[in-house]
# Entry
Amino acid sequence: MDQHLTGIGALHDAVTNKGTAFTRKERSALKIEGLLPAAVDDLDTQIERVLEHLAAKPDNIEQYIYLQELCDRNETLYYATLMRDPARFVPIVYDPTIADACLTYGHIYRRPQGMYLTKEMKGRFAEVLANWPSRDIRFICVSSGGRILGLGDIGANGAPIPIGKLQLYTACAAVPPDGLLPIHFDIGTTNAKLRADPLYTGLRDEPPSPNEIDALVDEFMEAANQVFPGVCVHFEDWKGTDAIRLLARYQDNYLVYNDDIQGTASVTIAGLTTALQIKEEKLAQQRILFAGAGSAGIGIANMIVEAMQDEGLSQADARARIAMFDANGLLQSDRRDLSSSQQVYAKDLPATTDLAEAVKAFKPTVLIGVSTTPGLFTEDVVKGVAVNTDRPIIFPLSNPTDKAECTPNQAYTWTGGKALFAAGVQFPDVSVNGKTFHPGQANNFYIFPAFGLAVYATRPKRIDDKMWIAAARGSADQVDQASRAKGMLFPKQSEILETEITTATCIAEHIFDRGLASVERPDDIRAWIKGMTYTPGY
# Structure
């Protein structure tokens, strides 16, 4: 505890505050006698009170608001609550409830969390970042709000995303919270409705040109590394074209990654790895069709290509096994509207804007949805994939829930229970033909907190896709046979902390094996990593 904080200040600082858990001796020493009720509670009692408060809330968004206010006044109690039952609380503090929090952010805003940079601070980013009270920042999660979940460009309303992402670093992988800094980078928004909202909290400007954005982020990256030496910058929910460009721009010179591109790809490969272990097939044998060809789709495809190359294919042969379909139809060689990152997946196939026809033409064994188009995977589409394989792999990954390309009930019903299924959100169990299936959730929280923990521990010299492939394999190897029999493709959420520590260990081993760590390799990597983790307690 910071002994410099006494009196009411000790109760108003979220990190040092214990609330009713301050002992009588502490109350006397800190001059807070008379400022608290008489009872001295332990942490378990405080958690019980929190759970009663939550039970009285009418819906998830009110629970989200309550929990964020709890974090603002007692960080220890907040994380103790989340880490007691992550399977229950992750959907409240992150996806899917965070979508509602973003949509209403200007209306539910209470107090600042993290930092808020704007394009108007150009030339002063280092000065402004120095206003943060700590210099020992190990991770920055930064978002422009340019492409949030399936909500599009919501500008400053995307501020809850970097906050929530970093909270999951701690809640799911016990990364110490004092080294985490969420930042909303306000470059304006194309969302005219938000700009007209009197309660909107951001700049009411259109975003600048890509060249101007690059200049802004160039200065930000230099300033962040100047103020917080060795910091890892986690880009989150930037507009797709910005996301791809910025990752390529910085990944060779800074410690940086993009969770929408690399984390999404890694968790998808984790699910594919488990599914293919069930099928006793290799990734390099599959034909994969993407519905959606933005930054997420391209990122997943690129990482799959690298994983296929690990299994012996050439880059050209791996790319030939992947096709893409976007709002304008199948990506094929005659199209003139494709970016350079899309062109490598264009096929010499007949043009079509009908996904079912694209399935017939390409004959995929795996269908991945990152389109944010609900219902896109129709019965004809799913059955079309099932023609090509005994056990079709169907991954409608778009979120929130109402953006999913199909439901597990549909996928299982249309394939007679043969589909290997994962969505971007958690659906309830489904019974088909007398068998109960537990649909997988290909949510990045299985991967990025563990990745953060491994980076926290090893301080690598750079980050590349091979590390994310190692993370995927580390996650997949933890799905036991009983879980696979129920259709589960990811580890149990109830055991998320131990799962993430194990995945982090696999990533760290990979980093050490390649000589990329900046610290000495310990004899027992798992024990070493676990010794660095955060345990909420007074």
About this structure: The domain at 92-254 is CATH 3.40.50.10380 (Rossmann fold). The chain is about 45% helix and 10% strand.
